[in-house]
Amino acid sequence: MSTITEEDIIKSVEDALQYISYFHPEDFVKGMVKAYENEPSSAAKNAIGQILINSKMCAVGKRPICQDTGMVTIFVKLGLNAKLDIKRPLQEVLDEGVARAYTHPDNTLRFSVLSDPAGARVNTKNNTPSIVHIETNLSDKIEIGVSAKGGGSENKAKFGVLNPSDDIVEWIVKQVEGMGAGWCPPGILGVGIGGSAEKAMLLAKEALMDPVDIYDLKARGPKNHLEEKRLAIFEKVNNLGIGAQGLGGVNTVLDVKIKDYPTHAASLPVAIVPNCAATRHIHFTLDGQGPAKFTPPSLDLWPDIELPTEGLKRVNIDGLTRADLSSLKSGDTLLISGKILTARDAAHKTIIDIIKSGKPLPDGLDLKNRMIYYVGPVDPVRDEVVGPAGPTTSTRMDKFTKDILETGILGMIGKAERGAKTIELIKEYGSIYLIATGGAAYLIAKAIKSARTVAFPELGMEAVYEFEVKDMPVTVAVDSSGESIHTTGPKAWKK
After folding, report:
1. Is residue 385 a contact partner of residue 336, using CB atoms and an 8 Å limit?
2. Are 369 and 341 in contact (CB under 8 A)?
3. Residue 66 in contact with residue 388, Cβ under 8 Å?
4. What residues are paired with 392 via a beta bridge?
5. Which of 272, 288, 421, 462 is most buried by its number of CB atoms within 10 A?
6. Is the peptide bond before 186 cis (omega within 30 degrees of 0)?
C-alpha cells in the first residue's frame, strides 16, 4: 500500500486553489453559455457576456476570476485504511496548502480572512484558517473537495425551520426574491433539507459542488421528488425576473442543487446557500501516488464574445459636474474614463470617524466631486497596475452614505441594489450610483491604467486607492432622479 504524505496533501490543496482561482468549472461555463444564448434582456446579456469574457481572460492569464478570492471550505472523506505519513493535525496540514496558494508569487490571491471577528478583526495575512469538514469511510484513499467562496454570496445564505406541512418550494422562492442581486446572479442555489440546523447548512454548502446539469434533467424528466423540487425552484426563481446582476432577465439561477438528510418528526430545517458568478470548486483523490494533477480545460470551451459598443456613452468623470448627472439615466451603459477613488467598509468608517472627530482627512484625500468605487483589489503581479478589481456589494455601504454624500462626492460605483433610504439620499443630493459587473474583475482591471495608495495603507486591500481608468464599463443603476434599474428591470421581466 502506497503512503499519502503531508506534502502530497499540501501540494494538492495549493494547486487546487490556484487552479480554481482562474479556471471556472467546465459545467459552470457551459451553463453560462446557455444562459447567454437564451437571454432576451440586452442589459442582462451584456452582463453575462462580460462574465464569460472575464472567465476566458482569467483562463489565459491565470489570474483570479474575482477580486474576492474567497474563504476556503474543504470537505474531506478520510479512508480509515489509508496509509498516512502525517505528523500534525489534518487542519494544520490543509491550512499550509491554503497559505501557500494564497501567497503564491505568480498569482497572488486576496487575503480576506480576519481573526477576532467580533473584536479587532485582524487580517491573518494568508487567508487561513480554512473551514474543514471531515467524514470517514473504509477506503484506503483520501477524497478532498475544495471550494473558495466569496463574501457577497455567502452573506445571502438563508436558514429556516419550517413546519412539516409547509411548502418548501414556495419558501425558497420567497427567500431568493428577497436576496436581491448582492449574491451576483446568475449562479447556483445549494439547498439543504432536513437533519438539524447545522446539518442543513452543511448540506446546502456541499450541494453547490455538484455538477450543473439542470438542462439534462429537464430533458429526461424528474425521477424523484427532489428532482421535481429542483425543476420547480429553477423555473419559479427565473420567473422572478431578477436576472443577471439584478438588471432584469430570465436567467437568475443556472441550476438548483439539493441534498437531504433524515430529520425530527416535528422539524423541517431548510437552508439555502447561493453561489455567485465566481463559482470555484474542485474534487480530487489521493491514493499514495503523489499530489493530485489538474488538467486545464480547452480554450474552445469559451465562445468568442464581443460586447456591443453601439449606443454606449463615453463619460469623462474628471470634468463631470453635478448638473451633468441629470443627463445620465437609469439603465444607461457607460464607458467611464478619469480618476476615481476606492473605499470599502473599513475606509468608510475610518473617514467618517475622522470627520466626526473634527480632524482633517489625510493629505491628498479630497472627496469633493469625486466618484467612489467600492472595491478591494487583488495585489498586482509582474507588470500589472493592479490585480483583479471587481466591485463589492454596495448595500454594506448604505449605513455610511449620508455622511459620505455630505463630503461632496458626485457618486458611487459598486454592485447590486441600494436600499430605499439610500436611493432617497441619492435623489436628495443629486448624486448617482453606477454598477460594474460582479464576476468580471480581471476584465475591469484591464481598464485601470494607473493606481496609487492615497490613504490608510494599514487597511491592506481596504485602503483608499486612486485609479485612473479608461473606458471602464458601468451601468447607471440609480440616477439623480432616484430611478433604480434594480426595481424597473426585474419588474419588466417578472412573469
Report:
1. no
2. no
3. yes
4. none
5. 272
6. yes
Residue 129: cis peptide before it, omega within 30 degrees of 0: yes
What are the two backbone dihedrals, phi and then psi, of residue 20, each rounded to the nearest 5 degrees?
-75, -15
Kindly state the cell numbers that stand for 10. Answer: 499540501
Strand partners of residue 450:
468
pLDDT at 319: 86
Q: Which residue, among 177, 178, 175, 208, has the nearest Cα to 191 in the 3D structure?
A: 208
User: 348 catalytic, yes or no?
Assistant: yes
Burial (0-12, 13-18, 19+ Cβ within 10 Å), 143: middle
Is residue 257 within 8 A of residue 251, CB to CB? The reply is: no
Asked whether 127 and 113 are in contact (CB, 8 A), the reply is yes
Helix (H) or strand (E) holding 261: strand 253-261
Q: What is the mean predicted confidence (pLDDT) over 265-272? A: 98
DSSP reduced 3-state for 315: strand
The catalytically annotated residue of 24, 133, 281, 348 is 348
Helices (H), 62-196: 90-102, 151-154, 168-179
Output the CA–CA distances (angstroms, integers) from residue 272 to 153, 197, 256, 342, in the order listed: 11, 12, 10, 32
Adjacent-strand bridge partners of 341: 372, 466
Q: Burial, 61: exposed, middle or buried (Cβ in 10 Å; 0-12, 13-18, 19+)?
A: middle
What crossing angle do the helices spanning 168-179 and 225-238 adopt, rounded to 10°?
30
Q: Are the C-beta atoms of residues 291 and 8 closer than 8 Å to each other?
A: yes
- Between CA 327 and CA 330 the distance in angstroms is 10
Do 255 and 212 meet the contact criterion of CB atoms below 8 Å apart?
yes
Each residue's pLDDT tens digit, 1-41:
789 999 999 999 999 999 999 999 999 999 999 999 999 99
d(CA 172, CA 199): 17
**Single-letter code of the amino acid located at 303:** P
Single-letter amino acid code for the residue at 52: L
Q: What DSSP line would sit under 103-136, residue for residue?
A: T-TTS------EESTTTT-EE-SS-PPPEEEEEE
**pLDDT (tens digit per residue) in 307-323:** 877 778 999 999 899 99
**CATH numbers and ranges of domains, the chain:** 151-277 (3.30.1330), 313-493 (3.20.130.10)
Question: Coil, strand or helix: which one is 67?
Answer: coil
Kindly state the percentage of the chain with pLDDT values over 70: 100
**What sign for the dihedral angle of Cα 406, 408, 410, 414?**
negative
The helix/strand/coil state of 480 is coil
Beta pairing partners, 373: 342, 413
Chain centroid to CA 404: 25
Q: Find the mean pLDDT for residues 408-436.
A: 97
Spatial neighbors of 189 by CB under 8 A, at least 6 apart, are: 172, 176, 233, 237, 253, 255, 256, 257, 272, 273, 274, 275
**Among positive and negative, which fits the CA dihedral 131, 84, 13, 78?**
negative
